[in-house]
Amino acid sequence: MRRSILLASAALLAAAGPALGQTSSRPTSVSEVVVTAAPYVVSLDSVTTSVDVLDRDDLDTAPAAGLGEVLSNLPGVRSSFFGPGASRPVIRGLAGPRVLVLTNGVGMIDASALSPDHQVAVDPQEAKRIEVLRGSAALAYGGSAIGGVVNVIDDRIAETPVEGIEGRIMGALSSGDGGETASGAIKAGLGPWVFSLDALRRQSDDYDVPTLPESRRQMASEGEDYPGKQDSVVENTAVTLDSYGAGVSYVGDRGFLGVAVKQTDTRYGVPGHAHEHADEDHDHEDEDHDHEEEHDDEEAGAEEGVKIDLQQTRYDLRGGLDLALGPFEKVRFSGGYADYEHVEIEDGAPATRFLSEGWEGRLELVQAERDGWQGAVGVQALTRDFDALGEEAYVPAVEINEAGVFTLQRLDRDAWGLEGGLRFDRRTLETAAAKAEFDNVSASLGAFMRPAEGWFAGVSLSRAGRAPTEAELFAAGPHIATRAFEVGDAGLDSEVSYAVDATLHYDGGPWDADLHAFAVRYEGFIDLRPTGAEDPESELPIFAYRQTDAEFWGGEAEVAYRLWQEGDRSFTLEGVADYVRGDTDLGAPARIPPWSATARGVFETDRWTGKLELRQVGEQERVAQGELPTDGYRMINASLVVRPVDGFKIFVEGRNLNDAEAREHASFLKDLAPLQGRSFRLGLGYAF
């Protein structure tokens, strides 16, 4: 199948030349355009929902970590942190299958949404840009985007011409985990053809923390005495990741067509996993003995802990063509095929294997703009075969098929505007013993206005439907990552949300503000709840997926004030805050993040930028049944980026300088694996 895909892609490229025409010198898209928001042009200061964009400069100096950790300081975003090896974004308190992670607008075709210890098969350092959309984006991307979208956009398939050779390299070292990162990318233009290569290697050891890995609350719940804070290491958290890719595209006057291939190989430890396998009988008579070793040595063969070996090979095809077809001026299409394998290794031998193979594609017809009216219609389809083999195969083999059709429309009359959309999806999940089919309709309507120079205000109403996942429907077995015996319900209905989002932007003089408020009501909210029973074989508590009604509400705020400016030099004060509250008819949902607030000072010149920030995260006392509260924490971070010559940068960063004990409430491992203690990072980058 792989060979046929490559041959077909090569044939398409060869045939594309006459249709696309010769190389043009048209400019690239301006950086303020939000690619993920819609197939047509929408600028960042004109979107009616909450959006953040990280560009290559941001990513060069971002922590060497997984996707969830890199995005976790954005307002309204946290991490599902399952150690440094595995993290997914948590958006407005929603995680897993409700947050869709894309690569270049197409799904990952991995198993990262199935379990919190499964890493996303893409690393932030591969990207040229990452866009984060909070709130439902189900109209454009289907029900899996009911809570938000993270789109990791790389540059393997060029959409614009390249003259000569251009590229980037970056390397960094970090303390506290012995981390080393190196990445690079290069593009070469040969007439209308553009060739690209990129590579990334990231590795780190077990990381340091300023406290025992097990929290004070966890020890108290187990009847243990807390010996006080002491420097420790979170065992079994080393990570090795290699990713490399290549692409070729043809860029002409009327469009582009390209193919790309990427290989991802990563091996990482899962903290706390082996601990849960053990049938433990703690002995804490000697409190001076290292607390971690008591847990690690209780079971023979558990010293290494559980490690995960993840591999994915992915092929992508993407193109766009200018045309004159009735009301449409452009067609865009993208598709990806991936073969994914995730192996859990225990006692040095393969145990459970998770397999995912399939493809996803979308095609969009973009309307010509007419007096401020923009729009697009599109279709999207996917098919994926999932299987799990081994003792933790708690979900049976499933074939998943989905097809959707949608339209998005926007009228912008400068002083005011309207936008809306409609989508229909059909999703089918079939096992050897059962079949479930779901039809979902999603719709939205919004309005916005620009009452004065620099001001933008908008409000949108939406309805979105999400089909249950394979785990929610068919799970039946022990899931060690969540420390539960999970039971699905094949009779679940679709989850439906009704949301209102309000947005206020202001950019004028020394001020820049971005404010958002939201409220969402769910009918048939799918929640994993304890039954009060215990599985006799695994001795794990039994949790069952149930449907209930739920409400989430909150907001995000980003405000900046330029306190002083003289020529190229300036000093700016920035403030960021977020809050979310969730309620269901069964009580508080699990792992809802507490409020956070960040104050930052930024001094910038044409050659260097210095930042000092104070981040405060509140305690979380509203917890679900069986969940422990989490203490708040305060963290001090600082960074300096120096640009001695054009294209070259040196950066140094200090994180958690006050060595605070910080636990991510959205993580299943919050009471077993705190965030890293004080650490420093030094790196170099060069773009040419």
Would you write up a description of this structure?
It is a single chain. The protein has 688 residues and is mostly beta strands. It contains 8 helices and 33 strands. The strands form 4 sheets. The chain has a 22-stranded antiparallel barrel. The chain has a 5-stranded mixed beta sheet with strand order 1-6-7-4-5. A two-stranded antiparallel ribbon has the order 2-3. A hairpin with a 3-residue loop joins strand 19 and strand 20. The radius of gyration is 25 Å and the shape is globular. The two termini are 37 Å apart. The N terminus is likely disordered.
Secondary structure tally, helices: 8
Q: How many individual β-strands? A: 33
How much of the residues is beta strand, in percent? over 45%
Sheet with the most strands, sense and barrel status: 22 strands, antiparallel, barrel
Rg estimate, integer Å: 25 Å
Could you name the ranges where pLDDT drops below 50 across 5 or more consecutive residues?
2-19, 22-31, 274-302
Give the N-to-C terminal Cα separation: 37 Å
Mean pLDDT across all amino acids: 91
Structural class: mainly beta
What is the general shape? Answer: globular
Relative helix content: under 10%
Q: Could you give a quick summary of the protein structure above?
A:
The chain has 688 residues and is mostly beta strands. The protein contains eight helices and 33 strands. The protein has a 22-stranded antiparallel barrel. Strands 1-6-7-4-5 form a five-stranded mixed β-sheet. Strands 2-3 form a two-stranded antiparallel ribbon.
